[in-house]
Amino acid sequence: MSGMSHLTTSSVSTPLPTNEVADLAQQSEPSDEDELDDDLESPRGIEKKGTLSKWTNFFHGWQDRFVVLTNGTLSYYKSEFDTAFGCRGSMSLALARIQPHEFDNLRFDVNVNDCVYYLRCNAADERQGWVEALEQSKAARSADQGYSSDVTSLSSMQKATSLVSINSAISGASTSSKAQSHRLKEKLLEMETFRDILYRQVDTLQSFFEECSEQSNRSANISDIDAKQELQQLMERGVDFRGEAMTFKATMAGILATLNHCNELISRKEDRLQKRLEKEVERRKKAEIAARQAASESRRRLFAGGPDYEEGPYSTLQEGDFLDAIEGECERLERQDAYSEKPDHTESDDERITDEMCADNPFQNEIEEKLQENLKYCYEQVGHSWSVVHDDGDMKVYRRDLEEGGVVLDPLKAYHTVKGVTAYEFCQHFFDEKFRMDWEGTLDSFNVLDRFGSNTTVLHQVHKRVWPSSQRDVVFVSHMRDLPQLDTGKEYGRGYVVCNFSIDHEKAPNNGKYIRARCNIALLAHTLLEPSVDGEVTRGQLSCQITYSANVNPGGWAPPSVVRAVSKREYPKFLRKFSQFVLRTTHNQPIRISSDSHIHKPEEQLESQ
Fold first, then answer.
1. What is the pLDDT of residues 380-411, one digit of tens each?
2. What is the CA radius of gyration of the chain?
3. Are 423 and 436 in contact (CB under 8 A)?
4. How confident is the model at residue 41 (pLDDT cuts 50, 70, 90)?
5. What does the alpha-carbon distance between residue 392 and residue 395 come to, in Å, rounded to a whole number?
6. Which of 274, 502, 470 has the alpha carbon at shortest distance from 370?
7. Would you give the distance in Å from CA 223 to the centre of its chain?
8. DSSP label at 591?
9. 115-120 vs 46-57, strand pairing mode
10. What is the 3-state secondary structure (H, E, C) of 368-410?
11. Cα separation, 426 vs 544, whole angstroms
């Protein structure tokens, strides 16, 4: 019974044998001999190579890289001619995941843990060839190095974790049920007592039976009377056979009762352990689900620098996240622009702007058409289809919702009044490219492609990247012209208009590096003068009445709600910022109503005031 007691207690409290965990470790870790065999048997030589587009970062986007697959390792170089100077990066394919993109049939991703290569081919067949070559190289590499597949590896991890979880559940159950264990020990001690009694009874009965056997052997040579006398003497020596038999029976009954009790205790304990184990398994399942969700979220944050988390047809960003990112980046650019130094412009030395068209201007007819179209558009009153998106005293901004093919093309019209400047000064600062970098905070660079006379310029502008949107550029003609004086009697001097509209130009082809936006913008301005008693004209009497219209096709794949939210916020800010720039630049400067005339010198204005 002591052996039984030892077996029972060890089954409850003894942890699982460590040889099972050791076996798992031996299965998951290759030996040094296997690694040596890998080095000797691994395939050598280049398996596949070619030039692919690789996602680098948000600023440079997709760049051509020379990619080489050799010996189960994927490496890339800046170009085919840089292979002698070492690769820029590489990864082993033994544990890599090769994922063809779900929607983009030219793209595939290769990642190991937190390292990801986003690659694009020029054709779908080329992508399929690369994916097959990578999978074959991965399989060969995994087989050589003794690595199992991801599923097998995960199964081994789950098996090892299950053993630990079961062991923990059993140990926890043993600790939490001390009272039941104490009762079981008491019963086992009782069984040891019954065992000692039973041993003594068995010894007594065994001695009695042996003497009876000897007496039986001798009875054949003696008379019946002598046999009876010897049996009588044997009984008189103190062996109560009937009493011993009854005691033996009672002892066996006690043993059976105690065993039954022990069995009940063990069964109840087993039920409790089973329930604890089920709870442990359930908790483990929930923990695994939470771990997978956390891993997915961490991968999402980790790979937020990839092409899936920027503007594009396959972007995984939600509209709310997209808008938050855009607004945050715009605020950063504003702070950066606020701290940048601005040049102190003195009196403009621009050449005289005239209405005369150059004879060799190829855009003359298009300029006249766009100019008349925008003038008609600016002078029209807003109707019921327009909605007010900004109303702040001297500025009102209207918008009319318009979409084509999922792209937002909302026309916008703004009315604004700026005191202290003339129409010429306002339009001249908007037209002259030398001021453009000072008031256009989103501008990264620009280039003058052509110039036709003093009033027509062809520009190529590249705007700053505002993550997660793509970088954009625009090629447009900018034309400035004066207008006939209005019949209201309040206008001072002539009005001016600046018309900017997109064109295609051979000096700035759309090579796909940027998203090419299209625009049709007009800035119309008239100068109003408040009468004075002494007849002197000062800036305090001047006000510029402005009508600004914009019809912009941003292109790309930005969500419509994001485009509308950004335009609602940025257009009024742009008008305010540009107005303040003109006021700051013309302060204490002569009042100019045209390019060849002005009213006063600054000192004359001070004397008149």
1. 988 888 999 999 888 999 999 998 877 888 99
2. 47
3. no
4. very low
5. 5
6. 502
7. 109
8. P
9. antiparallel
10. HHHHHHHHHHHHCCCCCCCEEEEEECCEEEEECCCEECCEECC
11. 8
Residues 140 and 71: their CA atoms lie apart, in Å, by 9
CB 398 within 8 A of CB 382: yes
Tens-place pLDDT, residues 215-261: 666 655 555 666 666 666 665 655 566 777 777 778 788 888 888 88
**Residues 76, 89: contact at Cβ < 8 Å?**
yes
Contact 472, 516 (CB under 8 A): yes
User: What does DSSP say about strands 495-502 and 107-112: parallel, antiparallel, or unpaired?
Assistant: unpaired
Residue with tokens 């600004």: 548
Q: How is 158-178 classified by DSSP, letter by letter?
A: HHHHHHHHHHHHHHHHHHHTH
Judged against a pLDDT cut of 60, whether residue 192 lies above it is answered with yes
Other CB atoms within a 10 A radius of the CB of residue 19 amount to 8
- Please give the backbone phi and psi of residue 236, each rounded to the nearest 5 degrees, phi first: -75, -15
What are the φ/ψ torsions at residue 114 (nearest 5 degrees)? -95, 10
Residue 70, classified by CB atoms within 10 Å of its CB into exposed (0-12), middle (13-18) or buried (19+), is: middle
Query: With contact defined as beta carbons under 8 Å apart, do 9 and 174 qualify?
Result: no
What DSSP designation does 62 have?
Answer: E
Cα–Cα distance, 134 to 260 (Å, whole number): 65
Contact 72, 59 (CB under 8 A): no
Tokens read off for 341:
């130094």
Cis amide leading into 484 (omega within 30): no
- Lookup: tokens for 74: 């994927």
- Separation between Cα atoms, residue 139 and residue 30, nearest integer Å: 16
- Reported as type and span, the H/E element at residue 43 is none
Unique residue bearing structure tokens 């190529």: 460
CA nearest neighbour of 344 among 584, 576, 574: 584
